[in-house]
Structures are given as structure tokens and as C-alpha cells.
Amino acid sequence: MTTLYTADHEWLRIDGDVATIGITDYAQSQLGDVVFVELPKLGRQLKKAEAAAVVESVKAASDVYAPISGEVVEVNDAVTGDPTLVNSDAAGKAWLFKVKITNKDELSGLMDADAYEKHTA
Amino acid sequence: MSGHDTASSPLKQTPLHALHLARGGKMVPFAGYDMPVQFPAGVLKEHLHTRAAAGLFDVSHMGQIVLRPKSGQVDDAARALERLVPQDIMAVAQGRQRYAQFTTASGGILDDLMVANFGDHLFLVVNAACKAEDEALLRKELSGDCVIEVLTDRALLALQGPKAPEVLSKLGADVTGMRFMDAGPRKVMGLDCFVSRSGYTGEDGFEISVPAADAEAFANALLADPAVAPIGLGARDSLRLEAGLCLYGHDIDTTTTPVEGDLVWSIQKSRRSGGTRAGGFPGADTILAQIDGGPPRKRVGLKPEGRAPVREGAPLYGDADAREPIGRVTSGGFGPSLNAPIAMGYLPTSHAGVGTRVFAEVRDQRLPLLVTALPFVPHSYQR
Predict the structure, then answer these.
(1) Which residue, of A73, B80, B129, B324, has the fewest CB within 10 Å?
(2) Contact partners, residue B32, CB within 8 Å, separation at least 6
(3) For B212-243, how does the pLDDT look when each residue is reduced to its tens digit (9 = 90+)?
(4) For chain B, which residues lie within 8 Å of any Cβ of chain A, measuring from their own Cβ?
């Protein structure tokens, strides 16, 4: 499985033609205490770069943009039930949603772990 | 992430700037100052710590102004200041403080402030973003009666929370005899301070004006007490929102009257219709007519029925499919002590009754909210 990153601090774990998407540990540390998460509806056709989810801290609301186009095939109800998971395990238990990738060519512009680390340095 | 200032001038620093950096404060521009929005503990923990123990806030960016009567009689300064505010300042006894507003000719609010009677002069604390305009207003309108002195050599700290009296007492401050809104010069740690028992969190606590040169040592002495944690602007905002207190420039401004802002309690009978010194302040016609006949709209507390925070700017509707908004959210977010989203906003009087259901538009959805009595969290002032 490959993990890729966006400049907007999202991660994608690619498993065949399904991508699992979340926000990075760096992103959660910048947001602070997360108190609310809103996820896209199952079956929604996301277009790359459109607002797909919302993560809110005490201070502010932040959009999570679809890093690639595709159909939403699963959402993580655990994280809407307990938004603090985003702070405790952003890269794991706090995955947000999964999409069936429309066009794998869209993955080519994303960063690998080393490139992302440089991006946040 | 939001909250960027567009001002191009370099940010000012308070006397506690180095301390904020040393304690890991995350700095943001606020009212022209480089201020800590949070410390490593984070907004949630800082908020809860203040309600459970004591939080230390740097509010040195606020303006501290002395009004010294040329006659030597503090009543003359009070009478002069009453030309600018709808409050009874003459009745503020020595050692007491009162909440007030500078009003506009149309009844709006230029700023809100605290006014204390220090015996031979008045001591004012005004908002950072308004302090230059406030000073100009005072100089223009009151220079005949008062010498106006802006204190630039003092820091202002707020110590808020149930353990605040104990913490200050341990530093040798004689504050246990003070009650809510008492204010005056006091020695703390041997320093010449101005102490008031008041604040902006809904908790018991104090605001302490201290010489700038001693501010860092004073703050470090407070922070050496395990009950005290440094608190940033983020928690300051969530604490005041839970306490139902107005943030100037958001919940009140030049387009809202004190009556619409639900601040009638702060306008004493003596300045209202039929009072001994009725009117005589800017916008009196509008403000007194609204007190007598009711305002067209009112600031209210709002509790979203779901979990989604409803933020400043969200339009409010009378029902789920109404086309025209009837009001707007002016402050909104998450209340850590309630573990729930909360907001304040303006609604027409017809929709301002407690228990009325209205709808806010958030991300193209209409979310239901209930009009709720303020404050959300009861005040624990020591009256």
C-alpha cells in the first residue's frame, strides 16, 4: 500500500482502486482541539479539489478538499462520533472517508512521505 | 487557518511578549499586537483550567486611560464623562467600577469600557482596537474639564478562576475583602498596582494593572503557583462566549444600540426617561425610545440542536425554507465547559423569545438552533 500526501495536508492510502483519506498529524497539530467532523455522504461523486469534509476546532472550521476525483464508498462514523480521534490518531483511526478512484492519473501530482516532510519543514 | 491581519505596519509587543515566546505561545496578530492565541496545552485545556483553577491572561494591549478633573473634584470628571456614555458615572463610588459604552449620535456603540473611581480621578480600560479613537474622542470632548492621560508604561494582566483570590493572597495582595467590581490602587508583591475584581470569563477573578518594567517578574510569580496556567486569546474567546459577554466589533458595534445588544441593565434609571439626569449622551433619543418602546431586534443566545458549530456571519432564518434571513450570528463556536456548540446573534424581537427555534445556514444546510437565555455558563462573581 502506498501513502501519498497533498500540499493541503491530507494523506491518501492507496489500496487497488480505493483511496482512504485523512488529514495529517501536522494538520491536526495546527488546528488544535478538534470538536466536530462532517463527512461527505455515501455515494457522492467528488471532484478533485472540491470541499469534501469539514474538521472544526474550538477556534475555526477547516475544509478538507478531495485530493482526487471519485465516488465516496465508505465514511468513518467513529470519527464523527469522537472527533478527538483526529488529535490522537490522525494518520490511523481518524481516517475520514474512502473513495473509488475515477482516474489514477490524478495521483501523479501528489507527494510521497519524504517530499511531504520537506513541505512541512 | 484564519485570523490574519491585513495591516502592513509592524506588530506591537506587550511587556509579556518574551514570556509568551518562552512558554511556547502560538503568536498571531490581534488588534495590531503580536499575541498568543494558545499555549502548548491548547484552547480546550486552557479553557477548562480557567474554570477549575486559575488562568493568567495578558490583556496589556487594552488601553488604560486616566481622566483627571481639572477642578480636583472627581465628580466633575464623572459629570463630563456622562456626556459620552449612557451610564450613571456620578454614582460610581470611590473604589468601585462600572461597565459603560461610548455611543454614537445614532445610538450605536463606539466601544465598551470599564470606568473606575479612584478617588481623585477616573480610571478607564478600553478595547485595544478602539483605543486611539477613544483617546481622540476624550481629548476632543472632555479636554475642557479633564486632563487625559494614556498610560503606556503599564501592563494589564487578568487572573481568572476560582483559585484567583487564593493565588493573589499568597503574593501578599489584600484582595479577600474586595467584591465583584471593586477597584483601586493596591500593593501586590510590593508593586503599585491597580486591582479590580472583574474580568471577561464569567469567573471570579481580577484584572491587575502593573508597571511595565515589573510585568514579567509579576507574571512569573503568578505562574509559579501550580494553580495558574497561561491562557491565550482562543480560550479567552470561548470563555467570554460561554459567559454571554459581548466582543466589541462582533456582537456590538456602531450599528447596534446598547438596547439591541441586550445591555439595558448597564443603563441606570437616572439616565433613562424620567430619571434625574435623563439623556444627555450621544444617541439618547434613539436609545431611550428603544428602552421605552422596545428595540426592533435583540442580541440573543443560540444553542445549535446538533453538534456542528455555527460561526460568526451565518445568516439566521425564521424557518427551514425561508428565503430571506431575519438575522445573523455575531459570535459562535464551541463551548468546552458545555461540550456543545454555542452562539450569539441578532434576531427580530418577534423571534427573540427563549425557546424560539430558528435556522442558520451553514455549508448550504439549514441547521436548527434554539434561542437560549444568557449566560450559557452561570457567572460566579463574588458580589
Answers:
(1) B324
(2) B5, B7, B9, B11, B12, B61, B128, B129
(3) 999 999 999 999 999 999 999 999 999 999 99
(4) 1-3, 37-38, 42-45, 47, 234-235, 237-238, 307-309, 311, 333-334, 336, 341, 363
